[in-house]
């Protein structure tokens, strides 16, 4: 029931260079006739913020509702994956790649009326790095050595080692007013909207900010309506209680929208992967052959079909097609029951074995676990499904590594780098891979980085480090009188300021 | 009546106190530290220590209990671990949904159940009396969420006569919109609730119809209507009112499931969310308020019963309750 | 609140009484039979996913399949096991605890009796579903949690009823006579109290069984019942809710079985009451 995704925070290794164009129009729908700039847009979502501060555990929902809408960063991560200037007007990098000098816009005001200065930027980066920070991006900034503010409009960041994804990572750092208080329940950002009212458990409204420095939002108000269950969300869309659904999670209702001229179903790119993650430290999954056998024994295609109907796609590794270092690796460990049986026999388990699968209690994990149990029974492996809550998962699996195998959805892009960290929960330990990941982050060019991460990608697929079951679809369903909504929802962002209603 | 009232009020106060104690113990004796609620979002040991300090779970149990009683007495229910919003005002904003839902459903259920129950009893040997009895039998066997799903499917999705769920963001600022959103939930609860009420009304009516005083009154020449009016209703209403008290309380708390089906931001969905997030101040606050509500409803039902039925005012009977 | 004693509803005519009991036994028996058969034979293995996605009835699947391609009828049969296990487990627990507490209160001194009565009032103020949710929050969703929670919830109701019944019996002349003639308490309980209390209790326990089955379905619907791959009817309903327009059978069939079982159990309770309570026999 509880659709709260446990986001695993990819230390995103990235580049300021734009990604290859994704081949889709970045904005949904076709151009509409007359639009109403004073309209209210009702957005339906399953991901409610837990609080309003993304460095205090606001979760996936706070990114969706506030990122880019209420809070802005120095740089903006566009829906197509590219990065552009936002509160920064530009930056210079020293030749050794260790000093970033960032220039700020001069005309920016916070919602409270205070003007943006370099002190706010320093405060905001420090807030991410603070000991009590729960920011998803904290570990991405370990290379930061010093932040200086020579004048009101300049920030100079010194790094201890090269970090090719530094600017990309800055696109996740919200700029707060350094004097603001109570940021978990109120806000003071620079974005095109101010938070109106927040009714926890129900709605969050955003109101157009009159003093915005940039182009004004094309609608006057946006109300996020939160649901705990996909069916209720679909019903709300069907009965016009909401205009758009940020991320459709139930394929069965889609037939009601696909054949209906009042709705448009947009199939965008997702970065959310469903993983059957082995604990690579413990028997039997410390044996590569066993992991390969399990991977080959599960018919991912049928699983995807069961959960998502005709949506979603298969991946052979952790990297989704939108990452620059993507390769099709679905053939590395193909679905082949006989091969699986051979590998099991070779590994010394001709009659299979029994293991416990720790499964989060929210969709789609229980259903997928049931499917996997049935598939593995065919090669003699018995699966005991152990249903746990999200916080139990965090403590038992993520923190204590007290598990044999688990399931989890991983939402971030560019998170293949976690396979370079042997202390990560799945415990994949290949010194070569660790080395490549480290080198990739310190590379001088994007091409070097891409080449290295491709190697990582191929190696983890060969080792069946985890079983990457499938890539989620990213389906945004909207009523046809709506245009300008984001299609890809990268990292669960949802920019609402260009949405128009006719 | 006055001594009884005093005793009953004293009893209410004692049960309220005991309920707060029970709630406190229940939640503290659960395995694990309430501070663990913060783990789900990635806490460090320092943060856990800070959380324990903030919620006071690092204090000795008796001290925690005194703090808790102080909170209850001052109606300061603390702050949510997750959203950091104060719990009290949040509960108040949820009651704006749950209380009207409960009262409307209750009123509708009574409006349905009293005449239907009466007819089912008075005409129990006719086919329609038996049919009504049978339907009530069906009604108490149907799970309330199933009724909700069926009503949504038919009236919201197929016929488009009512919204499928949700509640206006500005609550009752436009009463029409709010009422519109409550139609299906109210009908759902009322249908299920009226089924058991019908059975009680029917049974109470059968008892009255059977009774000697009614026969006597009729033998003495009263018309059926006036005999029923003067003796029957008063007598039949005594057991029914006590049941109504229990049913009202059940509806209030049973809203948990209905609010889930209809995505209503009421007390029930707040509790479900609190449990899902292990948000102890929220769980504690909601349970305290709902337990108090149930106890107070029981108190009022007892009073109403005594006012209607003079027999219960006799001292020996009052003592044996 | 003595109203829980005046148990409602009775059959209007003598002939219908036996009909009530018979119909109830047939309905509940149907589900029990389904559960017993499921222990020895199932149309498909429980986790067989060989069917198509949401296939309609026919083609080897009597009622079609669910999202994962599992046979719906197989899942329903397994669901009957869970409904009956949780229902009877909870009622057994509630019965034992409730009767013990009720007897204790009935025999206790005024002071202790008042204390138990107050405690029961508070317990009843925590409805079954809330107690269950708390337990689940603490111990995780499991079959045992559901049984314990629902059992605890119904024990308060049973205890309150037992207490009133015991008090009523104890005030009767024949008990007073037995007490003055020096009969021991245990003998009074065994010879006078239990035989007189028993019939009403059995009826109430049967009603509680219906309540327990419904409570289990609600818990599972909220995702707090027996975890997968146990197929509880409540969770089947929750899962099928998304496909109610495309594959309505999945949302209807578990509900129908649930209703049949609860009606069956309630009819048995009604029938038993008429048999057990001769004062109800007079025809109006």
From TrEMBL, chain A:
GO terms for cellular component: ATP-binding cassette (ABC) transporter complex; periplasmic space. Its main location: membrane. It comes from the Bacteria. One of its GO terms (molecular function) is peptide transmembrane transporter activity. It is found in: Cell membrane. GO terms for biological process: peptide transport. Residues 27-43 have a biased composition (Polar residues). It is a lipid-anchor. Residues 84-413 form the Solute-binding protein family domain. Residues 27-46 are annotated as: Disordered. Keywords: Signal. Residues 1-20 form the signal peptide. Belongs to the bacterial solute-binding protein 5 family. This is Peptide ABC transporter substrate-binding protein. It comes from Rugosimonospora africana.
TrEMBL record, chain B:
One of its GO terms (biological process) is transmembrane transport. The keyword Cell membrane applies. GO terms for cellular component: plasma membrane. Pfam families: BPD_transp_1, BPD_transp_1_N. Belongs to the binding-protein-dependent transport system permease family. This is Peptide ABC transporter. PANTHER family: DIPEPTIDE TRANSPORT SYSTEM PERMEASE PROTEIN DPPB-RELATED, PEPTIDE ABC TRANSPORTER PERMEASE PROTEIN. It comes from Rugosimonospora africana. Its main location: membrane. SUPFAM superfamilies: MetI-like. Residues 95-301 form the ABC transmembrane type-1 domain. It is found in: Cell membrane. The keyword Transport applies.
UniProtKB/TrEMBL annotation, chain C:
The keyword Transport applies. This is Peptide ABC transporter permease. Belongs to the binding-protein-dependent transport system permease family. Pfam families: BPD_transp_1. One of its GO terms (biological process) is transmembrane transport. CDD domains: TM_PBP2 (cd06261). The chain crosses the membrane at residues 21-44, 82-108, 115-137, 143-162, 201-224, 244-272. PANTHER family: D,D-DIPEPTIDE TRANSPORT SYSTEM PERMEASE PROTEIN DDPC-RELATED, OLIGOPEPTIDE TRANSPORT SYSTEM PERMEASE PROTEIN APPC. It comes from Rugosimonospora africana. Residues 80-269 form the ABC transmembrane type-1 domain. GO terms for cellular component: plasma membrane.
């Amino acid at each position: 029931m509880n659709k709260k995704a446990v986001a695993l925070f990819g230390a995103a290794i990235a580049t300021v260079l734009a990604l290859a164009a994704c081949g889709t129009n970045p904005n949904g729908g076709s151009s509409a006739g007359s639009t109403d700039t004073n309209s209210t847009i009702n957005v339906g979502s399953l991901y409610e913020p837990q609080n309003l501060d993304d460095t205090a555990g606001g979760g996936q929902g706070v990114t969706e509702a506030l990122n880019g809408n209420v809070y802005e960063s120095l740089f903006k991560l566009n829906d197509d994956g590219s990065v552009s200037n936002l509160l920064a007007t530009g930056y210079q990098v020293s030749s050794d790649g260790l000093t970033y000098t960032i220039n700020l816009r001069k005309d920016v005001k916070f919602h409270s009326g205070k003007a943006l200065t370099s002190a706010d930027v320093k405060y905001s980066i420090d807030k991410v790095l603070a000991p009590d920070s729960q920011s998803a991006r904290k570990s991405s900034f370990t290379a930061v050595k010093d932040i200086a503010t020579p004048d009101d409009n300049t920030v100079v960041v010194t790094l201890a080692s090269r970090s090719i994804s530094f600017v990309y990572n800055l696109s996740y750092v919200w700029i707060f007013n350094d004097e603001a208080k109570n940021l978990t329940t109120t806000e003071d950002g620079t974005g095109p909207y101010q938070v109106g009212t927040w009714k926890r458990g129900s709605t969050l409204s955003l109101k157009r900010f009159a003093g915005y420095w940039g182009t004004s939002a094309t609608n006057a108000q946006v109300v996020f309506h939160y649901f705990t269950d996909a069916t209720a969300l679909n019903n709300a869309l069907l009965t016009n209680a909401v205009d758009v659904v940020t991320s459709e999670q139930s394929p069965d209702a889609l037939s009601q929208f696909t054949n209906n001229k009042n709705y448009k179903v947009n199939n965008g790119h997702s970065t959310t992967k469903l993983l059957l993650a082995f604990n690579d430290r413990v028997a039997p999954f410390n044996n590569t052959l066993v992991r390969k056998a399990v991977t080959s024994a599960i018919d991912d295609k049928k699983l995807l079909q069961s959960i998502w109907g005709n949506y979603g796609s298969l991946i052979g590794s952790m990297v989704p097609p939108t990452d620059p270092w993507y390769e099709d690796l679905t053939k590395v460990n193909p679905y082949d029951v006989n091969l699986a049986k051979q590998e099991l026999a070779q590994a010394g388990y001709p009659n299979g074995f029994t293991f416990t699968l720790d499964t989060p209690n929210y969709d789609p994990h229980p259903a997928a676990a049931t499917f996997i149990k049935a598939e593995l029974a065919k090669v003699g492996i018995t699966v005991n499904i152990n249903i746990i809550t999200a916080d139990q998962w965090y403590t038992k699996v993520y923190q204590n590594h007290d598990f044999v195998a688990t399931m989890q959805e991983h939402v971030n892009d560019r998170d293949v780098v976690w396979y370079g960290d042997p202390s990560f929960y799945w415990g994949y330990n290949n010194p070569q891979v660790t080395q490549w990941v480290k080198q990739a982050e310190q590379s001088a060019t994007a091409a070097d980085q891409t080449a290295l991460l491709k190697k990582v990608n191929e190696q983890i697929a060969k080792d069946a480090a985890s079983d990457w079951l499938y890539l989620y679809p990213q389906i945004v369903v909207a009523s046809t009188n709506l245009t300008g909504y984001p299609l890809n929802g990268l990292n669960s962002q949802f920019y609402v300021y260009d949405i128009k209603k006719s | 009546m006055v001594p009884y009232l005093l005793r009953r009020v004293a009893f209410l106060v004692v049960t309220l106190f005991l309920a707060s104690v029970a709630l406190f113990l229940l939640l503290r004796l659960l395995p694990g530290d309430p501070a663990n609620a913060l783990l789900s979002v990635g806490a460090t040991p320092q943060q856990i220590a800070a959380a324990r300090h903030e919620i006071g779970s690092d204090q000795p149990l008796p001290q925690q209990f005194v703090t808790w009683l102080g909170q209850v007495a001052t109606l300061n229910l603390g702050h949510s671990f997750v959203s950091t919003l104060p719990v009290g005002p949040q509960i108040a904003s949820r009651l704006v949904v749950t209380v009207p839902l409960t009262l409307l459903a209750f009123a509708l259920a009574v409006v349905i159940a009293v005449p239907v129950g009466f007819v089912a009893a008075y005409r129990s040997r006719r086919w329609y009396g038996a049919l009504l009895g049978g339907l009530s039998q069906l009604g108490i066997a149907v799970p309330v969420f199933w009724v909700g799903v069926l009503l949504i499917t038919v009236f919201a999705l197929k016929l488009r006569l009512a919204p499928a769920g949700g509640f206006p963001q500005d609550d009752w600022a436009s009463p029409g919109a709010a009422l519109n959103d409550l139609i299906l939930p109210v009908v759902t609860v009322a249908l299920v609730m009226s089924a058991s009420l019908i059975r009680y009304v029917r049974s109470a009516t059968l008892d009255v119809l059977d009774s000697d005083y009614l026969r006597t009154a009729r033998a003495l020449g009263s018309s059926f209507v006036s005999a029923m009016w003067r003796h029957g209703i008063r007598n039949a209403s005594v057991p029914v009112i006590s049941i109504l008290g229990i049913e009202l309380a059940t509806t209030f708390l049973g809203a948990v499931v209905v609010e889930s089906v209809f995505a209503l931001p009421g007390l029930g969905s707040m509790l479900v969310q609190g449990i899902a997030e292990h948000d102890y101040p929220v769980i504690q606050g909601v349970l305290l308020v709902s337990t108090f509500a149930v106890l107070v409803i029981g108190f009022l039902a007892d009073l109403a019963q005594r006012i209607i039925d003079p027999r219960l005012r006799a001292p020996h009977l009052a003592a044996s309750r | 609140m003595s109203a829980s004693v005046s148990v409602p509803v009775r059959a209007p005519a003598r002939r219908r009484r036996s009909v009530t009991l018979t119909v109830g036994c047939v309905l509940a028996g149907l589900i029990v039979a389904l559960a017993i058969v499921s222990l020895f034979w199932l149309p498909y293995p429980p986790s067989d996913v060989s069917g198509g996605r949401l296939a309609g009835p026919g083609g080897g699947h009597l009622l079609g399949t669910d999202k994962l391609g599992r046979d719906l009828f197989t899942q329903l049969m397994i669901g009957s096991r869970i409904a009956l296990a949780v229902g009877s487990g909870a009622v057994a627990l509630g019965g034992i605890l409730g009767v013990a507490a009720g007897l204790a209160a009935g025999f206790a001194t005024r002071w202790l009796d008042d204390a138990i009565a107050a405690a029961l009032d508070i317990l009843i103020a925590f409805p079954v579903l809330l107690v269950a949710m708390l337990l689940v929050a603490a111990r995780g969703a499991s079959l045992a949690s559901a049984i314990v929670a629902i059992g605890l919830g119904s024990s308060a109701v049973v205890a309150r009823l037992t207490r009133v019944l015991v008090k009523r019996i104890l005030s009767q002349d024949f008990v007073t006579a037995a007490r003055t003639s020096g009969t021991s308490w245990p003998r009074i309980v065994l010879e006078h109290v239990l035989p007189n209390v028993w019939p009403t209790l059995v009826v109430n326990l049967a009603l509680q069984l219906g309540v327990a089955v419904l409570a289990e379905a609600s818990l599972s619907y909220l995702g707090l019942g027996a975890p997968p791959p146990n197929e509880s009817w409540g969770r089947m309903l929750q899962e099928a809710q998304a496909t109610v327009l495309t594959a309505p059978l999945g949302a209807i069939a578990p509900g129908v079985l649930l209703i049949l079982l609860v009606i069956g159990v309630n009819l048995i309770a009604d029938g038993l009451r008429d048999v057990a309570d001769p004062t109800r026999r007079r025809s109006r």
